[in-house]
Amino acid sequence: MAAARAGDKDALDALLRRHYDRLFALCRRIMGNQADALDATQEALIALVRGLPRFDGRAAFTTWSYRVATNTCLDELRRRRRRPYPALTDDEPEREAGGGAPGVDEQIVARLSVDEALQHLPVEFRAAVILRDVCTLDYAEIAEVLDIPPGTVRSRIARGRALLADRIGGNPAPAPERQNPSHE
Amino acid sequence: MSDFSPFRASDQDELASAFLDGDVTADERALVEADPALVARVEQLRSVREALGAPVEPPPSARRDAAISAAVAAANVVDLDAARRQRRVRVASIAAAVVLVVGAAGFLLRTADSNDTKTTVAASPRSAEDDDQRAEETTAADEPLTAAAGGAYAGPLALTQRPALGSFTDRSALAAATEAQVGSFKELEDSRRAADTPPAPSAGQTQGDAATSTAPACLVPSPADSTGQVYAATAILDGLAVQIDVFALDDGSLVLVVTDATSCAQVFSQPV
Prior knowledge:
Chain A is mainly α. Chain A folds into two domains: about 80 residues, Rna Polymerase Sigma Factor, Chain: A (Orthogonal Bundle); about 70 residues, Arc Repressor Mutant, subunit A (Orthogonal Bundle). Chain A contains ten helices and no strands. Chain A is globular and about 50 Å long. Chain A starts with a helix and ends in a 5-residue tail after the last helix. Chain B has two domains: about 70 residues, no CATH class; about 120 residues, no CATH class. Helices cover about 50% and strands about 15% of the residues of chain B. Chain B contains eight helices and six strands. Chain B has a six-stranded mixed sheet with strand order 2-1-3-4-5-6. In chain B, α1 crosses α3.
């Protein structure tokens, strides 16, 4: 770590290789597909390298790197949300079936994979659940990564998991207040 | 658990989720374990957790290597936005420092001017007419007069306000001409009034362009034992535009300081 911060390229290369896979897994779950995850991971690595001189060591490098990668992914998702909505493709699920009327839409959602179900979660819930269940961080670490109180972490994880359970279990129309992070 | 209102459901989910993570109190744990519906919800959430924790498809090694190489290369690339931000901070810092220095200098000059006026009035009472004339000149020139005592940094009399002594080929001639002029003044005020009537050339002095310039004068520090500046002028010394400052010392003697008007470097100084 010290050598990497001092500009040793071999040390930096080794550091990035050591952490690449777990950062990619995080980005893969947040972004929802392989291609976007690869791009986001690369952005995150660059952000890590540029931020390394400012890394003060107060947090563990792992926690800090999760923070950088999570922010990179969330920034990218927010950018996309501002763009015109792309046309649906065959390998992409229909998002947010309007009206929530039961029927064919529900049957489709009930078969969604975990990744697809994750894309229906508000990003705030998604990040918290992934940091807990994919990265296995504890509540305090997640609070540090997301810069929110631990109580909010607990709430977001619970709501995110509940929404996922409902989606995957065939109950895709959860109570509205469960979808709104502002109710925390 | 049959009363599953949305709010209750949210609370139950939070309890079940916290139970799954082992983040519950003993009471909460007992509550969950005693409620079959809650236990079932915990199992649902556990399934979600296991599904999420399943390994993702590993990235192609080529993309992995490329991403790492790009990141390592980025270590050498200047982040233009960050560089611009740093430059803005530097410029703002310098500007703030300049403002502070100028403000402090202005305050010191005003303070020195105030002290000078008080000292002059006490040491050499003047008529009301003289005082009026002095006030008018000070206002018109908008320049602090600098008979600063006790080695204080003397504020310079602008070059345009100084009499032009003429051109000299050597230092001794310049010193002699200066000495001849200083004898007629007791204070810097008087020498400034003489700026409108340049003296006639003396021995060793040649006719030429006066060193009067529109450029501001150099700040010449007065000697440590100075009681004030008594004379200021400009001259040409061997082709070099110089400013002349004469200070009175506390032993009654005078010292001449000749400064390069362009570079503000001291050319020489000597008693007169």
